[in-house]
């Protein structure tokens, strides 16, 4: 799956510290799509409020209410993780990543894209 051309522009803005809401939303959504492509399934919900949430990783499917396995983090943390700029253990150590339930260790799936 090839990311859209607009991602390069958004990444340049992000790297320059000038990413606005539109750029953050684009980066979060596209990087979440790459995660789902790499680990399809419905066992874990990855939330990056307010920009996106996806279900991924094989396992028991959740259909109602709060899933048993949830990962939530701010947009900048997701972008840095997805691009390999911070490791999963280091991200967890910051306290900005909340992960609960089984299969919530993303270290084997990251990065989803190197830039």
Q: What is the gist of this entry?
A:
This protein has helices at residues 6-15, 21-38, 75-82, 88-93, and strands at residues 44-48, 52-56, 70-72, 98-100.
Offer a few descriptive terms.
4 strands; Nonspecific Lipid-transfer Protein, Chain A; alpha+beta
CATH topology: Nonspecific Lipid-transfer Protein, Chain A
Structural class: alpha+beta
End-to-end Cα distance, whole Å, is 15 Å
**What count of structural domains?**
1
Shape: globular
The oligomeric state is single chain
In the sheet with the most strands, the strands line up as 2-1-3-4
- Helical fraction equals 25-40%
Report the sheet with the most strands, covering strand number, pairing sense and barrel closure: 4 strands, mixed
Mean pLDDT: 93
Question: What is the name of the CATH class?
Answer: Alpha Beta
- The sequence of SSEs as H and E is HHEEEHHE
Proportion in β-strands = 5-15%
Going by CATH, the architecture would be 2-Layer Sandwich
Radius of gyration: 14 Å
Number of strands: 4
Unreliable stretches: none
